[in-house]
Amino acid sequence: HRPRGGxxxxxxxxxxxxxxxxxxxxxxxxxxxxxxxxxxxxxxxxRAAVMSTEGLAAAPPRIIICGAPASGKGTQCELLKExxxxxxxxxxxxxxxxxxxxxxxxxxxxxYMDRGELVPDDVIxxxxxxxxxxxxxxxxxxxxxxxxxxEAQAKALAAAGITPTKVLYLQVPDEMLVERVVGRRxxxxxxxxxxxxxxxxESDEVAxxxxxxxxDTEEKCRVRLQAFxxxxxxxxxxYQSLISYTDGxxxxxxxxxxxxxxxxxxxxxxxxxxxxxxxxxxxxxxxTRSxxTRSxxTRSLxTRSxxTRSxxTRSEMxxxxxx
Length: 323
What we know:
The protein is an alpha/beta fold. The chain has helices spanning 11-21, 32-37, 47-56, 73-84, 91-101, 104-114, 121-132, 135-140, 151-159, 174-182, 204-209, 218-238, 252-284, 296-302, 311-322, and strands at residues 62-67, 87-89, 142-145, 166-171, 184-186, 193-195, 243-247. It has 15 helices and seven strands. The strands form two sheets. Strands 2-3-1-4-7 form a five-stranded parallel β-sheet. Strands 5-6 form a two-stranded antiparallel sheet. The longest helix has 33 residues, at 252-284.
């Protein structure tokens, strides 16, 4: 429903804001012409309140996708990348690219990697911040794959001014995750990943040369899952207002459809927050009224004018007093 009265000035910018985040298929009844048609002339006192929403209308999406190992993040990232046109980023790819480019933070990371040490969070955050500041991410938006992994990383992102618009969490039971991991195999010639149960190789020849990663065992998988759950609970608390949960056990097309719905729900929540903020700004601002000329009918309802009694009325009143 469209807002009534003075708040209808927010209708156009907020529709544009929603359209920027939700897929076009989710807004079939709203056209560009309708968005512009219902934007009344803004008053001086409300212009500042609406400016903030106008600036967000064209902003690109900033998505974080979370999930345990083998939850299906890679598959869904490819679909999200194609749907939204965002830049798909993983910390591993960003680290290797920064080291190859010889950037200052890349050189720092290289030192730790050469010594066989873990790259500390502050270096990783620096690499992520530099990458997200590049033109392709600023113009088309980004999709962070499996990062942040810890509360410290999430808080460091926030401190660096990096805030997502959507946080998507794929949920899969541990037993199914273990089954997915243990059955994974890789073709060393093509790099293609198979699964002995869910995506078996096409021929015995391919099956004979498949290899298994050294850490794709049940024991090591359960260790990784335990660490994931311990850290993820804290990460969730950092994004309570933005996170949406999706059942990752369903077929990939259905999972993707639910991720799209989750994205539109986050967009709607953001729209409500922006509407509330804009309305509060409009109500708190001083009102500048333009001079108006009241019609005779309106004036008679608001201002008493001196009345002149008819002679008949005066005569009747004098007669009543004598009596």
